[in-house]
Write a structure and sequence with these properties.
Elements (H helix, E strand, L loop, with lengths): L6 H12 L21 H7 L7 E10 L14 H14 L2 E8 L3 E8 L2 E8 L2 E6 L4 E6 L14 H9 L6 E3 L3 E5 L2 E10 L6 E9 L5 E8 L7 E10 L16 E6 L10 H4 L9 E3 L6 E4 L11 H10 L1 E3 L2 E5 L4 E5 L4 E4 L3 H8 L1
Parallel strand pairs: 6-13
Antiparallel strand pairs: 1-2, 1-12, 2-3, 3-4, 4-5, 5-6, 7-9, 8-9, 9-10, 10-11, 11-12, 14-15, 15-19, 16-17, 17-18, 18-19
Helix pairs in contact: 1-3
């Protein structure tokens, strides 16, 4: 997603991560938990053992956040197109192919109508590719770096976010036996104790043999259908073909290169540029499921938006004290008149109070 994209749309799926921050359960076994009656702590701990897994599969993501369906990639300005594309990730279903050969070889292919977006990591080399825009980015990572986000959440992503909220803000159910993508799994349900969050529960299904998260479901309070669900519909263990992790941009593609190999040695320089500019990181307030993330003044300049982008903003938000806001079934975003952005899995009123 380009920096010019409408920030609230980009932040919305990330806010769930900021809304669940608390210590992990410690001192639990990290072995697979097949053929036993495991505790929730055993199931959670088994996820750590899946970091070296090798597999390929098909992921399906569905979202029902109460946002209107919008056309993607339309409009005269690039900003409007970016915003529509970002919102498309939140308002409709998406399918991705995932290929993983341990922690430093991964490929995610997000398919859309007549288009494809790819994220390919092979060691320290990371490529992103957008077939519609015919643009590619090549990033050289520091040693032992984690793979950058692809813009598409996986069950592992959501599991990690939910695991971080285990205590003291969450009630965890006993595991129950389920089947996901033809694999036996243990499912646990995490229910926030806080009454100030929009999140009703998070269900995680974890492979009994490998500890790999196979499905994650986030339910909003008062909503019968899941607000967000992402899970494997097919999954095969074993190393994918090595050629899948090689990428060469097509002839005529626009290629951008970023060398972050020495970012660890220049943490106050290159590492900050990965976020766009110095001081771009959010400030986090609150605890547990009621955490609020705030981007600083100047993050969004509403006066610089064109007519199309302004119309899209007006369509999605409503006027509130000190700015404009949107509240979905799961996440709220507040744009202040002075250019700040606040977001969290909380009602808009909580964001307005935090901004004051």
């Amino acid at each position: 997603m380009k920096k010019s994209a409408w920030l609230p749309a980009v932040i919305a799926p990330v806010v769930v991560a900021g809304a669940v921050a608390a210590p992990m359960i410690a001192n639990a076994s990290s072995d697979p938990v097949a053929g036993t009656n495991p505790s929730a702590a055993d199931v959670i701990a088994s996820i750590a053992g899946s970091s070296d897994a090798k597999y390929s599969g098909k992921l399906v993501q569905t979202s029902d956040l109460g946002l209107p369906e919008l056309p993607t990639g339309s409009g005269g300005s690039s900003l409007e197109g970016d915003a529509s594309d970002a919102l498309g990730l939140l308002t409709s279903s998406h399918t991705a192919r995932v290929y993983v050969d341990g922690p430093d070889k991964q490929r995610v292919q997000l398919t859309q109508q007549l288009a494809e977006q790819d994220l390919v990591r092979n060691g320290s080399d990371v490529w992103t590719w957008d077939s519609k825009e015919r643009t590619a980015t090549h990033v050289t990572l520091p040693k032992d770096a984690r793979t950058p986000g692809s813009g598409a959440a996986t069950p592992s992503d959501i599991a990690k976010q939910a695991i971080d909220a285990i205590t003291p803000s969450t009630t965890v159910s006993k595991p129950k036996d389920v089947r996901v993508a033809a694999h036996d799994a243990w499912q646990i349900t995490l229910t926030p104790k806080s009454t100030g969050t929009l999140v009703g529960s998070v269900r995680l299904a974890v492979d009994q043999q490998t500890g790999l998260p196979l499905r994650a479901t986030i339910e909003a309070k008062g909503q019968s259908d899941p607000a967000v669900e992402v899970g494997f519909t097919s999954l095969q263990y074993g190393a994918p073909a090595a050629r899948l992790f090689d990428f060469t941009p097509p002839t005529g593609a626009t290629v951008e290169t970023k060398d972050l190999s020495d970012a660890a040695a220049h943490g106050t320089g290159d590492a900050q540029h990965r976020h766009g500019r110095t001081g771009d990181e959010p400030t986090v307030t609150g605890t547990g499921w009621s955490t609020i993330a705030e981007l600083p003044k100047g993050s969004v300049d509403q006066t610089a938006l064109g007519d199309d982008a302004s119309g899209l903003l007006d369509q999605l938000t409503r006027s509130v004290d000190g700015g404009r806001a949107v509240q979905t079934s799961l996440v709220s975003v507040y744009l202040t008149d002075d250019g700040r952005v606040l977001a969290g899995a909380v009602p808009v009123s909580a964001l307005v109070a935090a901004a004051e």
